[in-house]
Structure prediction request, 501 residues.
Amino acid sequence: MFLTFKEEPNVVFKGLLTPLLVGAILSGCAMGPEYQAPDIALPEEWPEHVFLSDKQHHDWSDWWRQFQDPKLDALVKQATSENLELRLQLQRIQEARAQLGMSRAEQFPTVALQAEASRERTPGAMLPGNGDMEPIRDLIESTNNMFSITGVLEYEVDLWGRLAREREAAEAMLEESAFAHDAARIGIITDVVSTYFNLRSAEAQYRITENTLASQAESYRLEQLRFDLGDTDELALRQAQSELETSRAELPGLRQRVRLLEGALAILVGKSPAELFAELDFGDSQLDEIVLPSGMPSVLPSDLLQRRPDIRAAEATMIAANARIGSAEASRLPSLNLSAFLGSSTADTTDLFTSSAETWGLGASIAGPLFDFGRARAQVETAEAQAEQANTQYRATVNTAFNEVRDALVTYDTSGERIDTIHKQVEAISHTYDLAKIRYREGMTSFIEVLDAQRAQHSAELELAEAMRDRLTATATLFKALGGGWEDPRDAVELAMQQEE
Prediction:
């Protein structure tokens, strides 16, 4: 229904005042359920560990610095500024911010300006062509100009809160994209740290194998001399040669692992294809020079819901889905649209904006679905189903997060125990190797015992390098599972915008 008012402007405005006031009152009555956070049973505390005091949290905002490796710090800084996945997440924030701006704008009137100019000829031949009508045809025939400038205003009164709900959903999705960016950032940093530790471990294993190879080469040389002098048999010589060639065969695989890890780390920090094929230099830090943090800041299990950005992102998605239910329900009800125009229309430009050229109009329309054969109801049911999915996804994200913390704590503990036992193993095997060499030189044992002890020492040293890597990686994984840095809480959207700028 479209209503056009022909009364004087003051009368018309009084007539429109009532629906405007009613619309303003009803617009505060948004349709749909109010959001309520799910009630999830959480543990009261974590298993006992070495936790730091609250006063020590301020040093942990950049948790990777606790390993005290300047090269690692530089790589993390490069990754957070150059990684393409993080750049993509920032671009998604831009898109979500634009969607929010559109939703906000929908709540305000639309004002447009129209300007027209036309010249039109009215032909006299439009009248019948007999002799009696000839004088009138001459009078009708004319050429006229028309100039007009008009301002048009259109406004939808948000009677049932549909636009407000859409704005609420857009705000939640902006938060979701910002939290998703934070989650991706923590993931990228942890990947950089873990890959860096893997690289240092692979380099250490390569050096261990090279040292073992050099020792075996010397043993083979001595056995060759002993064989030439007749002091040993060929079996001992071939055993020494076999161990030498076995270690030599390990080197290509270890070198390959080092190169592959260098490439993976280069991708994480955002290096270009040209840089990937150039010589990659990640410094010469040693695995045993990396400092292992002595503890971690304390975090209550209930705090994890606010600390983990992936949980916050899932909750934002749930808030948006809840708001869309109200928007769908409001779409089933009539909408009130107001319109007005004010302008000047004349045949001569000199008369524009004069009182005689003034033109105006006011209107209101009410429109709503009458028979849509269930379309609107299906939209509501769709929104409700999506809200249920978001709720389930949120609960699954929370469960996954707490399981990650549990696994990280277990790995953190067992990796510490493992590194202690392997240290003792290396010491014992090294002592055994030294004794075997002494006994062999004195002729008290066979060369095979020396080779066995040497082989055992090599394996133990490689395993120690792996254990040190696993301990460092477990520490980084635990930091990630607990939500990353320990800076003061800030709004995720604001943080993401600052990083973008």
Q: What stands out?
A: The radius of gyration is 39 Å. Residues 1-20, 488-493 have pLDDT under 50 and may be disordered.
